[in-house]
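Entry type: protein chain
Record version: 2
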Amino acid sequence: MIRSVGRKGFHLAIAVAAALLCINASSAESCDRACLLEQAKRFNADMLAHTPQKVPLAPDAQIRENTKAVALSGSKWMGVTKILSEGVYADPDTGNVIEHVAAETAGGKPVYIGTRLKVVDSKIKEVEINFDDSARVNLKNLVPYDPIFNTIVPRDERSTRAQLQRIITSYFQGLTDHQPIQADYDPRCDRYHSGNRVTHNARNGIEESGDVGCYESNLGPKPWGPATEVRIPVIDPKRGIVIGYAILHYGDSPRRMQINEVFKILDGRIRMVDNIGLMEEGITTSGFSQ
């Protein structure tokens, strides 16, 4: 877990996170990318079939939905009847597979779901679900899922694992101090919240940043910050993908937002962000540390 730190603490935070990744990777039986993708596929099939008991959970598996501890049988996933599109990302180094799924419930209601599965020794040890069933889910920008996220980054534009981690650690620090690093952002970068484009869109209905890009929208002052419990469970240099989680505070307000963001990074700059952000009162922790 990387908590909000000053800019001088970035290198230390990155080193600690890298060490944790190495420990996690060495302590578990290997599950490669194909294995992790199969785990996500099987999870979806079992939940759609209303057979959560078939999901290969570890005996001590931790399951949370919108930060609250739940049983799979009590998850909102049980109301999903159809998957409309999905983006699935895997990181064999950490044992995590994460998907963003646009779906429908029995009444045809659109929902957007982020699901993280942590696989250890062929069993799912953690299930972390971000389930957005609010009226703001916008299928127009979710179906089909934007193919840019799965494109392979040319080798000469590809960042290393350490570089990608540094960029996203800095991104979350920018949510705290509102001093983002301009060189980390492509001027064309757009951020989507459950399918709603909130950048380069003055009438987005979600934020009031105006017609600006990802970099400008994080310049202060802002009503949000700090970002705490920052975690980076997936890094995929080949595809330029990083996935980060955080708890975003809103000053002294009891409101908190758990954010789950997929970043596409090209030539060392953030090009696209797919965010699921769930605002609630009473959020104190995600319940996860890695």
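Comment: The longest strand covers residues 269-281.
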